[in-house]
Each structure stands twice: as C-alpha cells, then as structure tokens.
Amino acid sequence: xxxxxxxxxxxxxxAYLFSxxxxxxxxxxxxAVRARRAFSLSESGIAYTTAKIQSARLLEKPGEGWPxxxxxxxxxxxxxxxxxxxxxxxxxxxxxWSPGVYDESCKLNLNQIPLEPVYAPEAxxxxxxxxxxxxxxxxSILDWMDEDEIQREFGAESSYxxxxxxxxxxxxxxxxxxxxxxxxxxxxxxxxxxxxxxxKWKTSPGxxxxxxxxxxxxxxxxxxxxxxxxxxxVYGGPSLFNAEGNDRILMNQDDLVDxxxxxxxxFNQKVATYLVAYRLVGPKDKTLLAQDDFAVDKEEETxxxxxxxxxxxxDTDGDSDxxxxxxNRGPLKINGRGxxxxxxxxxxxxxxVEYPSEDGSLLIESPWPDNESTYSEALPDLNRELSFVRGxxxxxxxxxxxxxxxxxxxxxxxxxxxxxxxxxxxxxLGIDARANRSNTAEDRLTPVDxxxxxxxxDLEEMRVFAPYxxxxxxxxxxVSSGYGDPNAHxxxxxxxxxxxxxxxxxxxxxxREHRDLFSETARN
Length: 524
What we know:
It is a single chain. By secondary structure, the chain is α+β, with helices and mostly antiparallel strands. Among the domains are: 2-103 and 475-523, no CATH class; 249-387, no CATH class. The chain contains 16 helices and 17 strands. It has helices at 2-58, 120-128, 135-145, 158-164, 189-193, 213-217, 256-266, 269-281, 298-318, 372-385, 405-409, 416-428, 441-445, 450-453, 459-465, 517-523; strands at 71-75, 81-91, 96-99, 102-103, 108-109, 232-233, 249-250, 327-329, 332-334, 353-357, 360-364, 386-387, 398-399, 469-470, 475-483, 489-498, 505-516. The strands form 6 sheets. Strands 1, 2, 3, 4, 15, 16 and 17 form a 7-stranded antiparallel β-sheet that branches. Strands 5-6 form a two-stranded parallel sheet. Helix 2 (120-128) packs across helix 3. The longest helix is centred in the first third of the chain and has 57 residues, at 2-58. It is elongated.
C-alpha cells in the first residue's frame, strides 16, 4: 500500500509538472503569435502611411495632421477581425499625441547648417534664433559636427572633451539622431528634451487614446518650457526627384551642353536657350540678382576669393596650348560651366537675358512673363520639373506654412520683421501652423507663392527667400502602433520616411514597445 501511494504521488506530481509546462508553453506560443501579429499590423501601418504620404505629395497637401483617416483595421474573410493599427505623432504645439504624421521641415535641420569657416557667423546666428541656444552651445554644436579640430571662439573640440573624460572626442560628422547632441558641451538631457530629460517620441499613447481636442475645440496650446528638440531636426533635405518619382533637371550643373539637351527634350528650344543663356551671362539687369544678407567672415571670404583666383590663373596657364572646346546649341556657343546660378523659379520670371553674339547682342525674353498666369500655371511645372540644388550656399529648407516663429527667423538672412510678417499673414489667411486645425484650400493646394499673392513678400524678397522655403518637406516622422487584440498585445515602431529618394526610404526605425496583458496575467 505504501509503495502504491508513493507511485501515485510521483505520477500525480509528474502530471502536474507536465500540465504546468504545457500551459507555460501554450502561453508563450500564444504570446509569440500575438506579438508577431501586432508587429505585422504595425508594419501594415507603415506601408499604409507610405502610400498615403505619397498620395498627399502628389496633391501638394501639407505634411502634418491631414484631416482624414489615420487608423485602419485588418480582417480575415468573413469579417473576422485580425487587429488594427494607428498612426500618431507627438504634437509639440498642443503637447499631446495626435493622429497623423509630422513634417520634419517644420524644424531647423542641423544637417543643413553650413559648417564652412566663411559662414561661421551666419551658422551661429541661425542656431541662436532657437530658444535655449547660447553662444557656447551654438559654437559647440558647430565644432561637434565639422570635420576639423580647430576650436571656434566659444566652441569645443576633442581637446576639450578629452580634458573632461578620457577617450572622449568630438563627433566630427553630421548627425544621425538628435540623441547625438547629448555629447555636446553645454547640452544636457533636460536642455535637449525638457524637464523629463527624455524624448516624448519614446513614449506612446494607449490603444485609441489619440487626442483630437485641438482640432475640435480650437483651444490654445499648452505652453511648456521650450527645449531644443521642439525646434531641431536631423532629417530631410532637398530632393532631385519630383513627387511622381521622376528625375528633376539639375539647373546648376557644370555641364551646360548636357543641361541644354535635357531642357530641350523636356521643354523646347526656347526654354533651353533662355535658361542656358542665363547660366552663361546672367540677367540683363544685374540688379535683379538676389542678394543674400548673410553674416559672413569677411577675412575668410577674402582669403577664399584669392585662392579661387589663383586656381583659375593656374588652370588658364595650364590650358594655354589647349583651346576650349566650344559647342553650338541653337544661337548659343557654350564653352564654360556658367558664371551664374539659378536659385529658384522666381529668378526667371519676367527677367530678360542679353547674350553677346557675333552679330551683336541677342535679347532673350523670359518664357515666363510676370503675370498671374505664370504664377498659377507655369510655376508649379517649374518646381516639379527643375531642381535648383546648389543655387545657394546654404541648403536649409523650412516649411513656411507650419514652422514656428523661431525656426522662420533662423532662415538664412531672414530678419525678425520678415518672419513676424509671415506668421501674422498666414494666421490671417487661415494657414494655421498648429496641426489638426481647419485646413483651408489655400493651405492644402498652394505652394509658397501665397507669400507673394498676399503681399507678405514682394517679388524681390521672394527671389531672396524662396530657395529656403517649402510647403511640404521630404521627411515624415510618426509612430505606427499595431494592436492584435483590444487591451492585449501592442507593437509600436517610431519611423522616419525619407522622400528624397525614390522609392522612399526608412531613414530611422525603432521598435518602442511590446506589451501582452494576456501573458502577464498568466505569469501572475
């Protein structure tokens, strides 16, 4: 009897252990399936958003807070619900999570700040337009990113960092993420991300908890202590592709013969002749050339100009026995790279070119006269077909419809009075910088030309500032949350889509959270 009892006890214990292990295995496998399902739903959200942004880019809609659906559900046949996803972004103005995506061109892109010594004063001015940026922080950011070890007046290079901590050096390259700033002299987590010292993007809302309060009530934004992440970005920039994915013609390329042929194929001989002649000799009235009011280092500028002249002299001496190759295109004799750059389509509107020829000067009128038909019909085509990259010394691009006052003031050469005028007039026109407010047709469908039509900027000012303005950026940031079951498993990915390339690329991705309440309950 005793032996039987012992055997029964052993068998019961073995059965209990077996059943416990099977239960644990079942919970684990169920959790793994739900985790994979939630992650797949999150991936579906990314694919959905990629297509949605591309569609909006084709319509030239704004890149932030589009007023239509940012949620989706996925089901099997027979309407059996598989799960859902939500697309959200951290709304800096309202200090809450909102449905939609964030256009990174609303911020100042640190990777577009000029690092050349000649532009050091302008780069410092741009950075110091941002609240919380001191002289020390501004120069230290520039030293952190530039490739040399020459310390700026208030900056810090590797020698400074090594004196504070062994084996610590300056980054000496452009930034991949805002976290890269945490090594910069004078920047703490609190200065970069606010009182918590942690990016809001590293937290996410729960299922179906996205707020639409700002869109519905029209309430004022919640004021928070400004911090650098509200105004700085490291994503986006100019693109050589249009929204349809076709190559734009690079207007400021060196090979003018190839430029002429491309323009002739894409447009016609009249357009090709005018644009290449402009590159060769500039406008007839040189006072129409845009003048940037940069803060530059005059001594460095003089030194660089002398170096360029010496190089050109050496090139001339070396090529004295080799005559320059001249190619004829239409009435033009093309034998150089072009003395003049084209900054934006506004350089071309109503501007005549006087081209010297053997038979006397040839006056070439602009194919685009200064009238409303040009602005409404031709201007969108020029922006779509042509790229003006390299037209300016600084490549900053800022969303004029959405960027806060501080970022507008950081636009190269922009005075505070001009930025104030832009903000005031876009509010009067209903082009509201806050996401999820009522979007007018003016806001959705027009490019930056509303500045000229409304009288905010005159044509001369448009020629100066248009190269730095956009109404739709190339980088969009959001969190895609996949929910396998209500209140069960969630998978969240922070994503930055980069439309400088075709097809678009994910330039940053991070899985932020996995949560499975079913598994947690089973473990407890």
